[in-house]
């Protein structure tokens, strides 16, 4: 009946792809030790999912202004408050290159803005990832040393990206 | 790996069910004449989907405070501004019982609040629906004369409800 995808279609593709990529990433990092970083808390649904999927991991959430409901907000000592342009370099000093999974859903409605943001934070994210670690993003990132890897079954090309060191 | 559904899982189920029910409803009303009502614009994704699915229908959106992006906002003469406790009865005077599809996604995070709202608006929605018309809702509604009908393939029980006069 429809010719083109609606915004609802695209949104569902994005959410389904995000979940498929995160669940796939959880398998890829199973043998690695290290923390998980969630860039942006939003309403906390993805953090809630990460915690359910990786119950034994330290999950640190980078957020400027946390507004999610309590069951989807990390404890204070796992919330890294501030602008990621500042907090990502600071995380390098604290955690080195120990992160085994970093997830970012920058996805606002403005694609150009998302892309500019992805370009700006790529060099800040790259040095945080452990060898074998995985970055999952809803936007294309711009890494020098990380390889884009194949999407898992169920993920829609262009709606999610996975990179691995 | 996971025992229980995460908030992300539940949200995906809700979005997928909403789309499945709306697409199913579009078939059910294909032979009927009359307008479509969307209760609440939100970010406009579902309105965008309805317009793509039903390009030849009049779609009226009931919203107190429209904030969606322009490509997902109806033209001014199809936007019914105000509180639905007032605008639904007024729509009865303007449209009678001619609506062939009414959709509502009341879904805030507070389930008790959603249920109270569903109870309050059910008697306001019920008289607007044409014979054969369909109501799709993300919450259980409380109708006297409308029958709950089976969900289409792909919809998850409890995440969406369909009623028909």
UniProtKB/TrEMBL annotation, chains A, B:
It comes from the Bacteria. Keywords: Methyltransferase, Transferase. InterPro entries: Methyltransf_put, SAM-dependent_MTases_sf. It comes from Sulfitobacter aestuarii. The lineage of its organism: Bacteria, Pseudomonadati, Pseudomonadota, Alphaproteobacteria, Rhodobacterales. Gene3D superfamilies: Vaccinia Virus protein VP39. Signal peptide: none annotated. One of its GO terms (molecular function) is methyltransferase activity. It holds the Pfam family Methyltransf_17. GO terms for biological process: methylation. The keyword Oxidoreductase does not apply. This is Class I SAM-dependent methyltransferase.
